[in-house]
Amino acid sequence: MKTLSKLKTNKKLIFVIFAMFLISLISLYATQKSFSMFSMDLVYRQILWYSIGFIVIYVVVFLENDFFSKYVWSLYILGNVSLLALLLFAEPINNASRWFIIPYVGTIQPSEFVKIILILVVSAMVTKFNNSYDKPSPKEELFFLLKVGFIVGIPSVLTFLQPDTGVVIIYLVLTLVILFVGGIRYRWFLGFLALLGGAITFVLSLFFISTDLFIKVLGTDFFLRVDRLLDWGSKTGFQLESGLIAIGNGTFFGSGIGNTPIYFPEAQTDFIFAVYANNFGFLGVLILFLTFGFLYYVLVKIAFNSHNFRNHYIVAGFIGILLYQQLQNIGMTFGLFPLTGITLPFISAGGSSLLSYMIMVGIIVNIANEK
What we know:
By secondary structure, the protein is mainly alpha-helical. The chain has one domain (2-369). The chain has helices spanning 2-8, 11-35, 41-63, 65-70, 72-89, 110-132, 138-160, 165-181, 186-209, 211-218, 220-231, 238-248, 272-305, 309-333, 352-369, and strands at residues 100-102, 106-108. The protein is globular and about 60 Å long.
């Protein structure tokens, strides 16, 4: 009963999650009706995952955040072990070792849960650092940043080898956001951007100057990934062009549910926004954006009401990855960003991603209930 009362005091957060649940079901229903022999499989599966997700929220609220604080490093080790086990034992799917196959259930993607673990780990590290030093020297900050880089670097390398560059970028985003909110001097961010710019310049120079040399130095797999990322600049490709046509045909009120005029792959995941925009038009997109905006309003309000700086970092990390995934997913359907396989949080079909975010929602509920 105590757990239920905690959920009731956070009606706004639960309401917005339920609203996205309904939008997700409508979008997936439209996807299946448009692109295949009509079936409700995706819809039923999403209902199942959301049902499990709400149970996960209840369990996380029951455990409370002290549990996650106590075992955060154990969770970190478990996350890395699961990523390593993927590389050693998992059966590749589409030439990628990202998923464990669970009989009668489907697939589980550990990297989706690792990003939540990293939010907790980096937040704990920044909190401890700020509590240890009133005014840290540049040398102390540098040593701390090297430790953070090492901790984040281990799962990043393991995830990159799967290969899954998109999730590695999410690791980087959440880390930078938490460090920024944690008050780390701006000079380190400028230095990081300079190093990143230099690395990108080197890779692109090598890519355009000599394909053979690039493959010899960095490998064929990395060449194919860079080639795919650069493909977006030409605004060509079957999937991208089809997505743009679908969005353009949506007009103001949309073409109607299930009336998407053109087929494109991964409509239920990567390109779910294109289907939604076509079926429900500008008005539907506006409702979706208002729903996202209301979620951010609730999260920011919860963070400001908390007097625990660790909670600020956790909420900031969550907002950072949510905003990045939304911008990346929607932007790539317009050709504004590279196609990276990033899904739209709470809307796209999927189990691991949704459950990981439901864990985070439970943690946010706990933060809102802390006195």
